[in-house]
Amino acid sequence: MHRLPVGVVGAGMMGSEIALTFAMAGHPTLLTDANPETRAGVIGKLETLLEKAVGRGLFTAEQQATALANLTVVDDLEAYADRQLIVEAVFEDAGVKRETFARLDRLAPADCLFASNTSTLPISSLAAATSAERQKLFLGTHFFSPVHRMPLVEVIPAFETTPDTVERVLALCRAVGKTPIKVKDVAGFAVNRVLHALMIEAVRLVEEEVCTPEEVDTACRLGLGHPVGPFELMDLVGNGLCEDVQDILHQAYGPRFMPRPLLRQKVAAGHDGRRAGKGWRVG
Prior knowledge:
- With 283 residues, the protein is an alpha/beta fold.
- The chain contains twelve helices and eight strands.
- Belongs to the 3-hydroxyacyl-CoA dehydrogenase family.
């Protein structure tokens, strides 16, 4: 297998596990984050994740060793000057992402592929922060959380993305053990539009006292075959992020994606889910 030099920008939950995926597949992978504390702690968090995953039979000890051997945390984007694929997974803010890509465009080799892990922002608008030639090599790769367990990747071409770039990235996703689908560059892509329609209706059920959050989660797990219910998932990813995504979808598609009042109330009260220790099912 060709060892592709990979760089991932953003060492939070998503970025760190995306980097882990490529490293486990044998690709020399660099990982960085603007926050020094995040950089300092990310390897320890990934080691803990891998230990648990090996214990559950998700990975072998050999895969664990391969992943850690191929993953390096660096202090600055300057180290990305020899990368052939760079995946951006920074904060879900268009300005931050565009600034990151503009800097990477000046640093990276001319033939380096650029990919954004955004879950909602238009890929073409992010690609516009780079040169005309780079835009041919720019697309979206929306991984799903937790990345080490979820096989799906939405691959989203921008306006200028060449068919060859799309095929290369689809093949690369398959080679690292993921199942990619090609999705048009629209707000929310495919999965988030389905998911947040479900979440909005789930919150409405609770507002109307039809069911409790626990009962809705049980119904979705046992009646629909979902691995986790919508309220468990909102607590996992953060209620604030869910509100932000729904605001973007609401702006794009109208009233059907307007966040429910109870979700806004939860966010305003600091009930952000797992990270805050308070949410729908935690606290």
